[in-house]
Amino acid sequence: MSPSDGRHHVVIVGGGFAGLGCAQRLADDDNVRITLIDRNNYHQFQPLLYQVATSLLAPSDIAHSLREVFAGQDNVDVKLAEVSGVDPATKTVRSTDGEEWTADALVLAAGSQPNFFRTPGADENSFPLYSLDNATRLRSRILGLFEHVDRNPSLTERGALNFVIVGGGPTGVEVAGALADMLAMSVPAEYRDLDVGAARIYLLDYGDALLKPFSEKAHAYVAKVLTDRKVELRLGTGVKEVGTGHAQFSDGAVVATRCVIWGGGIEAAALAQNCGLARGHGGRLDVQPDLALAGRPGVYAVGDIANIPGPDKQPLPQLGSVALQSGQTAAENILAEFEGKPATPFAYRDKGIMAMIGRGAAIAEVGKNHHEVHGQLAHMAWLGVHASLMTGTRDKVEAIIDWGWDRFTKTGGPHVLDRGDVAEINWEDDPAISPPGVTAARSSRPAEAVP
Ligand SMILES: Cc1cc2nc3c(=O)[nH]c(=O)nc-3n(C[C@H](O)[C@H](O)[C@H](O)COP(=O)(O)OP(=O)(O)OC[C@H]3O[C@@H](n4cnc5c(N)ncnc54)[C@H](O)[C@@H]3O)c2cc1C
Q1: Do residue 19 and residue 85 come from a single domain?
Q2: Is 37 near ligand 1, meaning CB less than 6 Å away?
């Protein structure tokens, strides 16, 4: 019990789906007070980051102030801080600026971060897509490239319109489709002098299919939709190195590019490394079926930061629905613990999976039996599910207006280049890329990218 006012104190690190689900459930209990700590003052809706990056939605459509979310709940205290250390024995967390919070129960919900798999240059030179900051950076880089080519078309020969997307999971597929749609529709309307026919989108994956968790029929469907939209698929191929002005593929090809988009994988948030706890697959914290850490009473890990065992004992995938439900179950187990009742094992309610491939094209596997739907119907299902999952009513309305605007005008959403630093490019800074007209020395397939 907290000595301050007699209420139990729960500290939650992270205001994503998992932290929010946990805090909202706990907030219903007046005998509990909650401190929710996040390094951002907002909750971000990760599934729609690619739509911000490709100018379909505005950042404010997918981010919601955490203080606003809990404005009506006096027992939730939101703190803007980056947690850098955890003492599981005393259930204390410490921020980068030295403040400490001690709790009766501690919930770690700090999510994921990109995993570059030690690919040389990827961390420094590619554009990951895991946060709102990542999405606005990428948007400015994409728009910045169009501006550069608009003024100097010869930059196309130096890779200014080559986009390399790493990873054929939902992030890679969704951004590839959205970028292809952008190049086909909104870019020609706004950049009248730009030769969009010269643009190339490469989508790479080491595996033999895109969107691997879906069926073979779905694999064929997604490959066809993207190929029809002029996305060049490179299956069985990864990226070996990312330079400031090029990407080297695992088959030896060197592609001149100023935009490598990283959707190549995730690992647990850095916090998992700093809490003195054993880490399992993906650097994540292995939890017991009740979501508590073994041998650490009162310490829970939920969402992407945790390896949560499914019915077959294998870890559940890193999904928004798993995060939200695990946060809610952790809250129920914490309340049970405070009341001296037994904990309940987490039981994931699988409602299916879906991915958007582009305008009018999506795949959904709905319900427990994963009944598969493709095309417009799946697109509509995707719109409905994502609108209903968004945190605030205003976000939903604004997103629906932007989606409707895009659908009927084909001009896309807000094309705002607001990160001038990201749009600035030194075209001479990559020695691996030969001057225009000269073939790149290291390329085994030079014709494809460096004329
Ligand atoms: C591009 C993309 C697309 C996706 N699409 C889908 C989809 O279509 N459907 C689906 O179900 N799932 C999707 N996912 C996965 C889903 O978004 C995640 O599984 C979910 O967001 C995990 O929730 P979480 O609360 O565990 O982590 P997060 O949502 O990542 O939240 C973690 C929070 O912790 C905060 N934080 C991190 N470290 C610290 C620290 N040290 N101190 C303080 N705060 C910290 C962060 O700021 C963040 O607010 C997608 C993910 C990405 C990246």
Answers
A1: yes
A2: yes
